[in-house]
Amino acid sequence: MKIVKFETFPLSIAYSQVEHSSRVHRGGVSDVVVKLTTDNGLIGWGESCSGADTASIVAALNAMAPFVLGQDPWSSEAIAREVFRTGLWDYRAMTGNYAFAGIDMALWDLCGKDCGQPLYRLFGGALRSEIDYFCYLAQGTPESLRRQCAAAVKRGYSCFYLKVGIDGAAEEKMLEAIRAAVGPRGKIRIDANEAWSVPEAVHWLTRWHAAFGIDFAEAPVKAFPLSLMKELRQRVPVALCANEGLERQSDTVQMIASGAADVLCFSSYWVGSLRRFHTLSQMAHLYDQKVCKHTHGEFGIAAAAAHHILLTLPNATDGAQQTASVLADDVVAGGLPVATSPRWGLIEAPGLGIEIDAEKLQRYHEAFRRDGQFLPYAA
C-alpha cells in the first residue's frame, strides 16, 4: 500500500458564538483538512491546525508532500523523521507540528482502515468506555452565564470552562452566576491564557477558590520561565494546568519533569503526532500528572483523532476540551456526539471511524477561498 495522492483543503466554519479571551477574539475556525489516497483506493483524513496563519500551514503541507507521496502509511515514524530532519521542519517546530499533525492523523486513519480496526486499538486499547467533555461558556453578563449553565446542566454537563484574565471584577460576577447555576458539585475551570502576573494570579485564584471552588486554573501565568508556575503552585490552593509552553516535545518534557503543573492541557497539534501525544501523556502519568485534551478550535476530524487517544490514557481528566458544541456546522457526516452531549463513547468503525460530507467539505473550502480565515483578533 502506497500513498499516491496528497490533497489539502483549507476550510472556514463559523462559531455559533464569538470566542473571546485575553488572547483571541474570533468568530470561527479555519483549519486545513488533509486527504491522502492510496494505490488500493483507501482514503485517510486528517486536520492541520492553522495557528496564526492558515496559508502558512498550507505552504508547510505542500513542502512536506514529497516526503509522504509514494510511502507506506504504516511507516509514519519514518515519514515524520524525514519531514522534520531531512525537510528541516525541526527548525520551525511549531509550524511543522501544526501542519504534520494533520498528515499524521490521515496516516493513522489509513492504517486503521487497512487492518479493519478503530484507532484506539492500535494504541493499546480502551481503558474506559467513554470520555466526558466540558461545557465551553461564553463570557457575558451574569444572566447570560446563568442561562448557558442551566441549559448545559439539563444536557448532563458537569464541567464548566470560562476564559478569564480580561476584567477580574466582571469575571467574578460571572463565576458567582456559574456556581449558583451548576450547584456545589459542578466543576468550574478557568483559563487566563497567561494574562496574569504571579501577584495577580495569587490574588484572583485565592479569592475565587474560596468563594467558588475552582477545579483547576489553566495558564494563569507565563509557562516559561518555569519558576513562575512553580512559585504560584506553592502559593495558591488551586490545581494548576499548563497549556501555553507545551509547544514542542522538549517543552512538554521540561514541564512534566519540573512538577510546575498538576495537569497538562495539550494535543497532537502541540507535539506533531498522535504517537508523541500518547507517549508524553504516558510520561506525565509516571509523574502523577493528569492530561486534559486541548482544542485550538477544531473540526470533527481532529476531535475524533484525539478522542481515540483519550480512550487509551490512564490519566485523562474528565472535562476534555471540545468546540463541536459551539461550531455552527462540521464536515463530519452526522456531526459528533459532543455537539449536543458531554459524553462520547467508543468508536468502533475502522481508522478514525468518521465519514466526511463531501458537499460540506467543498462548501467550507469555498467559504475560505471567498472570505479567508477567521483571524484570531476579529470576530
TrEMBL record:
Pfam families: MR_MLE_C, MR_MLE_N. InterPro entries: DgoD-like, Enolase-like_C_sf, Enolase-like_N, Enolase_C-like, Mandel_Rmase/mucon_lact_enz_CS, Mandelate_racemase_C, Mandelate_racemase_N_dom. Transmembrane segments: none annotated. Residues 142-239 form the Mandelate racemase/muconate lactonizing enzyme C-terminal domain. This is Mandelate racemase/muconate lactonizing enzyme family protein. It comes from Dongia sedimenti.
